[in-house]
Amino acid sequence: MQRELFALVRGLNLLSECALRGWVPAHTVQMFCLIAMRGETTHSELKKQFVNKQLGLSEAAVSRTIARLGDGIPMVPGRRAVKGLKWVESYEDPLRRTEKRVKLTRKGKELAHALIEVVRGKVSHKAA
Q1: Cα–Cα distance between 52 and 10 in angstroms, integer?
Q2: Which of 4, 73, 77, 95 is positioned for an S-S bond with 82, CB 3.0–4.6 A?
Q3: Beta partners for 76?
Q4: CA gap 106, 122 in Å, rounded
Q5: Considering its fold, how many domains does the chain have in total?
Q6: For residues 122 and 10, is the Cβ–Cβ distance under 8 A?
């Protein structure tokens, strides 16, 4: 168990190193990992997963988390801008134009592969 926990800590350290602010909230890590596992998903599927089942986040919080994982949140009156991690990209579903899809960027794929290597014990801190 100690080995697995040590690998988890190394993985979280890698995420923090790759994050712009030096830390990543737990729900952001969970969402990144879910997107990485699925390869591609929709905003509505992420909302179903995180609003109802996992963390009880609001739909707005899920949208902000997707934005933080992507290009960020622009400054609007009453709210500060948040720089994005650029680990995912969102785009309009070509078949259902009202739906947005989300997938990992090249940077996000590199980070996901690096995390897998860290968990496997092949420590590499050169990612994203």
Answers
A1: 30
A2: 73
A3: 79
A4: 21
A5: 1
A6: no
The CATH number given to whatever domain includes residue 105 is 1.10.10.10
| Residue 41 main-chain phi, psi, to 5 deg | -155, -175
- The whole-angstrom separation of Cα 6 and Cα 120 is 11
For 43, the domain range is 2-119
Residues of the chain with pLDDT under 70: 1, 20-22, 52-55, 122-128
Residue 101 backbone dihedrals phi, psi, to 5 degrees: -105, 160
Q: Is residue 11 part of a domain?
A: yes
State both tokens at 80. 């500060």
Q: In whole angstroms, what is the distance from residue 85 CA to residue 70 CA? A: 6
What is the pTM (predicted TM-score) of this model? Answer: 0.80
